[in-house]
Specification:
569 residues, mainly alpha, globular
C-alpha cells in the first residue's frame, strides 16, 4: 500500500506543477495584454518618440477619443446589441427547456444544437445577410404576393439600430446556452425534482420555473456573461451584418488599430481601454437589474400558485421554429449562392448554376483551411490536456475552484486583450516573438479555447463518482492505470465533446489571428471576413461554407466517436 501512496503523491505533485504552469500560461497573459494597452493610453509610446509619461499627452489622447464624432452612439450600439441579444437568448433558452425537456420533441432540439454551433458566426452572418437583405430570399418568396419588380427600400442589413446584428447574435447564442444547460442539468437530476414538485400539485411548467430555473440560472451565470461580453465586443460578424456609420465601439477601435498612421495607435489603445470599461459596465448593469428583480422573483416562486396560464412562455417558444428556419435558410442560401451563375431579382432560384467559382477558388482555399486545421488541433488538444490537469488536481484536493477564475478570459474583450498582448510580449521577450507567427497565433487561440473546454469538462468532473477509482485502487494497481482504464472511458464522451467545442472555437477566431499574426497568418476565417464584407455574394458564400466545413467536421467526428462508444457498450 505504501507503493500506491508514493505513486499517488508523485502524481499529485506533477498535477500541482502542471496546474501552476497552466495558470501562468493562460491567466497571466490576460493581465499582461490589458497592461500592454495602458501605457499607450496614458501617453507613453516610444515608437512615436513619447518615451516618458506626460500629462499633456494623456489629456490629448483622451480628449481626442471623447471628441471623436459618433463615439457615444458607438458605445450605445455595443451595449444595446449585447444586452438585448443576451436577454432574449436567456428567455428563449429557459422557455425551450421548461416546455420540451424530457419530452418527445427534446431529441429534435439536441439534434439542432450541434449543427447550429458548428456554423461559425462569420459564415452565419453572411448567410443571414443573404436571407434578410432587400433582395434576399425572404423578399423573393414574398414577390408573388406583393408584385414587387424591384427590391424594396428596406435597410434590413447593416441597419443603424443594430437589429440585424441582434438577430444574428440571438440565433447563435441560444444553441450555446442550451448546450451549457444540458451539462448543468446532468448534475441537478431534474426528473427527480420535477416529480417531487408535481406530487405537490404543481403542473410541469410551474415546477420547472419554481424549482429548477433558480438553480439553473445560478450555475448559468458565467456562460451568460460570456455571451454578453461577446455581444458587446463582437467584431467579425459586426463587420458583415452590423451597423457601419457609426459602427459599434469594437469595430471602431479595430479600424484605429489598422490605420497606417501610427498616431492612431495611442487613440486605439485608449479606445480599447474604453471598450473594457464599457464591457464591465454592461456586466454591472446586468448584475444590478438581476439584484433589483430578485425580490420580485422570490415572491413569484413562493406565491404557492400551482396552475397558471403561460401565454408569454408560448409566445417566446413560438420563436424557436422561426429561429430554426432562419438558421436553416442561412445555410441553404449560402449553398445556393456558391453555385449561382446568374440570379436576378425576383427569381427564387438562379437561372444559371455553375461550378466555375468553386473550381477557380478551390486552390486558394486549401492553404487557409489547412492552416486553420493546424491551429485548431494544436490549441484544442493543448486546452483539453490543460483542463484535465487542472480539474484532476482540484478533484484530488476535494475542492473545485470558482469557475470565474479559469474562465476569466471570456470576460475580457478580445480587442482589449489581443491589441495589448503583442506590446507586452515584445517588452518581455523582444521583437523575436514575431519570427514565429504560427506559435504566437496558436497561443492566442489557446487563451480563447481553454475557457470553453474547461467549461465543457467541469460539469463532468463534478458529477463523476470517485468511488469507482477508490475501489479500483484497492486492487493494488497504479493511479495512472486506474485513471486510464476506469475514469477515462467514463469521461470520454464529455472529453470528446469538449474537444469539438474547443476546435470549433479555434477555427472561428478572427481577432487573435489578425492582431497576433500581423497579417502573416491567413486562415479561412480572416479570408471569410475580408470577402464577406464585400459585394461579391458568390465569393462570400464559398468562403462562408469553407469556414463552416472544419467545425462541422469536428462535431461530426465527436458524435461518431461517442455513438461508437454507445454501440460498443
Amino acid at each position: 500500500m505504501s507503493d500506491i501512496n508514493r505513486s499517488f503523491f508523485s502524481v499529485q505533485t506533477l498535477l500541482k506543477a502542471g496546474t501552476v504552469l497552466v495558470v501562468l500560461c493562460c491567466l497571466v497573459p490576460l493581465f499582461a495584454g490589458v497592461a500592454g494597452l495602458v501605457l499607450p493610453a496614458v501617453g507613453y509610446y516610444p515608437a512615436l518618440g513619447f518615451d516618458s509619461f506626460s500629462t499633456t499627452m494623456l489629456q490629448q489622447v483622451w480628449q481626442q477619443l471623447f471628441g471623436w464624432p459618433g463615439l457615444l452612439q458607438s458605445v450605445w450600439l455595443s451595449l444595446f446589441t449585447g444586452l438585448t441579444a443576451t436577454f432574449l437568448a436567456l428567455v428563449i433558452t429557459l422557455t425551450i427547456l421548461s416546455l420540451l425537456w424530457g419530452g418527445r420533441f427534446w431529441n429534435w432540439v439536441t439534434l439542432y444544437i450541434a449543427p447550429a454551433l458548428a456554423l461559425p458566426h462569420v459564415a452565419f452572418a453572411i448567410g443571414l445577410g443573404f436571407l434578410i437583405a432587400p433582395s434576399g430570399w425572404l423578399v423573393r418568396v414574398m414577390v408573388p404576393f406583393t408584385g414587387w419588380s424591384e427590391p424594396p427600400l428596406w435597410l434590413t442589413v447593416n441597419d443603424p439600430q443594430g437589429f440585424s446584428l441582434i438577430l444574428m447574435l440571438l440565433i447563435k447564442s441560444v444553441p450555446f446556452l442550451l448546450l451549457m444547460c444540458v451539462g448543468i442539468l446532468q448534475q441537478l437530476q431534474p426528473q427527480r425534482q420535477l416529480m417531487m414538485a408535481q406530487s405537490l400539485g404543481y403542473d410541469r411548467i410551474q415546477a420547472w420555473w419554481k424549482v429548477l430555473v433558480p438553480q439553473l440560472y445560478k450555475q448559468l451565470k458565467l456562460p451568460l456573461y460570456a455571451v454578453l461580453v461577446y455581444g458587446v465586443t463582437v467584431v467579425d460578424a459586426s463587420l458583415i451584418i452590423g451597423p457601419q456609420l457609426p459602427a459599434p465601439l469594437a469595430v471602431l477601435v479595430l479600424r484605429w488599430f489598422q490605420n497606417p498612421d501610427l498616431n492612431f495607435r495611442m487613440l486605439a489603445s485608449a479606445g480599447a481601454i474604453l471598450l473594457l470599461l464599457v464591457t464591465l459596465g454592461g456586466l454591472f448593469f446586468w448584475a444590478m437589474v438581476e439584484r433589483l428583480l430578485a425580490p420580485v422573483a422570490h415572491r413569484v416562486w413562493l406565491n404557492g400558485r400551482q396552475r397558471v396560464r403561460h401565454p408569454v412562455l408560448w409566445l417566446a417558444f413560438s420563436t424557436l421554429p422561426v429561429l430554426a428556419l432562419l438558421s436553416i435558410g442561412a445555410n441553404l442560401v449560402l449553398l445556393v449562392w456558391s453555385f449561382a451563375g446568374r440570379w436576378r431579382f425576383p427569381d427564387i432560384w438562379p437561372s444559371v448554376t455553375s461550378l466555375q467559382y468553386w473550381q477557380h477558388h478551390f486552390a486558394m482555399l486549401s492553404d487557409p483551411l489547412l492552416l486553420a486545421l493546424k491551429l485548431g488541433l494544436v490549441s484544442s488538444l493543448t486546452a483539453v490536456v490543460a483542463s484535465l490537469v487542472m480539474l484532476e488536481y482540484q478533484n484530488q484536493r476535494g475542492r473545485f475552484w470558482p469557475l470565474m477564475l479559469p474562465c476569466i478570459g471570456l470576460l475580457i474583450p478580445q480587442m482589449t486583450l489581443f491589441a495589448g498582448l503583442p506590446a507586452a510580449g515584445e517588452s518581455l521577450f523582444g521583437a523575436g516573438i514575431y519570427h514565429y507567427p504560427f506559435l504566437l497565433v496558436s497561443f492566442g487561440h489557446l487563451l480563447m479555447v481553454f475557457p470553453y473546454v474547461y467549461l465543457g469538462l467541469h460539469g463532468a468532473f463534478r458529477a463523476f463518482d470517485d468511488r469507482y477509482q477508490t475501489v479500483a485502487l484497492t486492487f493494488g494497481v497504479s493511479w495512472l492505470r486506474v485513471w486510464w482504464q476506469v475514469k477515462w472511458p467514463m469521461l470520454k464522451p464529455a472529453i470528446i465533446s469538449a474537444w469539438a467545442v474547443g476546435f470549433s472555437v479555434s477555427v472561428v477566431q478572427y481577432l487573435p489571428t489578425l492582431l497576433l499574426g500581423a497579417g502573416r497568418v491567413l486562415t479561412v476565417t480572416t479570408e471569410a471576413v475580408a470577402v464577406g464584407a464585400g459585394y461579391d455574394r458568390r465569393l462570400a458564400a464559398i468562403y462562408g461554407l469553407a469556414q463552416a466545413l472544419l467545425p462541422l467536421a469536428g462535431f461530426l467526428f465527436a458524435r461518431f466517436i461517442n455513438r461508437k462508444k454507445q454501440w460498443q457498450g
